[in-house]
Amino acid sequence: QVQLVESGGGLVQAGGSLRLSCAASGSVFNIATWGWYRQAPGKEREFVASLTSGALTNIADSVKGRFTMSSDNAKNTVYLQMNSLKPEDTAVYYCNAEVDRPKWYEGVHWGQGTQVTVSS
User: Fold this and answer.
1) Per-residue pLDDT tens listing for the chain (120 residues)
2) Beta-carbon neighbour count of residue 56 at 10 Å?
3) Coil, strand or helix at 17
4) The 3-state secondary structure of 59-91, one letter per residue
């Protein structure tokens, strides 16, 4: 079983910073790609950032220059450092992990989400 648990969300003023964490646990598996997504009220879930096993990172244009994604492989954890936060960054942030082995765990797994609220 693959379990993802996000943490680090909260309420912050505009211009502030937060660091989200996503820890994977459960059975032994390999994560090929990690991703962060977010969903604001009344909107569809949107891509924020991703990180592959080769350390290639993609960042959405809307957060480029403000958000960075990193990983700690020893802890099977990824982070989303969010700086210069804006009210429009308010959303539930979800972590996902694309598992490529073993075969019975293949697929994309999601965490439960963590709320980020940015006040103006």
Assistant:
1) 889 999 999 999 999 999 999 999 887 888 899 999 999 999 999 999 999 975 778 999 999 999 999 999 889 999 999 999 999 999 999 999 999 989 889 999 999 999 999 999
2) 9
3) coil
4) ECCCCCCCEEEEEEHHHCEEEEEECCCCHHHCE
Rg (CA), the chain: 14
CA dihedral over 74, 97, 48, 10, signed as positive or negative: negative
Indicate the residue type of 53. Answer: S
Q: How far apart are CA 57 and CA 35, in angstroms?
A: 9
Pick from 74, 67, 115, 61: nearest CA to 92 = 115
